[in-house]
Amino acid sequence: MLPRRPLLALGAAALAIPRIAAAQPAWPDRPVRFVVPFPGGSSPDLTGRLVAQHLAGVLGQPVVVENKAGAGGNIGTDAVAKATDGLTIGLSINGPLSTAPALYPTLSYDPARDLTAVSLLVRGGQVLVVHPSVPATDFAGFVAHAKNNPGKLTFASVGAGSGGHLAMEDIKARTGIALEHVPYRGFPPAVLDLVAGRISAMVVTAAAVLPQLREGQGRALAVTTDARMPQLPDVPTLAEVGLPGAASYGWQVLIVPAGTPGERIQMLAREARAALSTERARQAMDAAAFEIVASSPREAKAYVAAEAARWGALIRTLGLKLES
């Protein structure tokens, strides 16, 4: 909210202002709803609350976080897309914005039509991990072992069409290896079966498996980031092991309903950057193995479109279809 000047300091000239000012009320004039499409305590919830708390301080109105979880983030994202009150903003991730349109034939919203990306807030890489029983100490050895044992190795994911699933399918397509996909409902059971040796491999977000790697319960062969991850400095990138262009990320984007005024979008992007520039935010994102981006609206829109094109093409090649 813009600072108000004391009325007495304006003198007689102030008498001419009220009628004009009343025609353009400040935004927001009521509490703002901030939709996070995942439960409290999740990574998107952490990021969303950092941004929401900052916005409440600069907007002069409460910014109420609403955790609207379900369907891999589609339910909460749909709530933002359908909002017409002018007071709803939200956070979404790569799934609902870039892969859901290709995965779900009857998706209830169209990200490109119904939503506007305000800022790419953060992104995090994944790690290709194998159980120690897999006789491979590096990526080349893993590929060779898989080719010598076609169809005998398995890989876990948190569901068909998830980031880890698609990243592994991309690796399979680029290397010509064959692994059987075993989908799970969430990271904990998938990681548990990986470290128990019931699953051969997994492409998983770094934060979900760092403790197990430190305990020697898994072996990291490659990271999906463009550069090596600070948390795993000795693990090469996919480009370094011979797969240029295979980098992939999980990411989080600040979104608003389509038709939101441009000046409001620019303001929200500026304040999102400010929210994530604090030492508190940096420490929180480092702990979650996320990289702070805080992009412009133009950059966010281009990034989401490029991701949708890339992963949509792979989904169609695989013939994946899910029920919404």
Automatic annotation (TrEMBL):
Matching InterPro entries: BUG, Bug_dom1
Short name of any one Pfam family annotated for the protein: TctC
Signal sequence segment: 1-23
Record keywords: Signal
Signal in keyword set: yes
Superkingdom, natural source: Bacteria
SUPFAM superfamilies hit by this protein: Periplasmic binding protein-like II
PANTHER family associated with the record: BLR1237 PROTEIN, TRICARBOXYLATE-BINDING PROTEIN
Family: Belongs to the UPF0065 (bug) family.
Protein name stated in the entry: Tripartite tricarboxylate transporter substrate binding protein
Taxonomic lineage of the native organism: Bacteria, Pseudomonadati, Pseudomonadota, Alphaproteobacteria, Acetobacterales
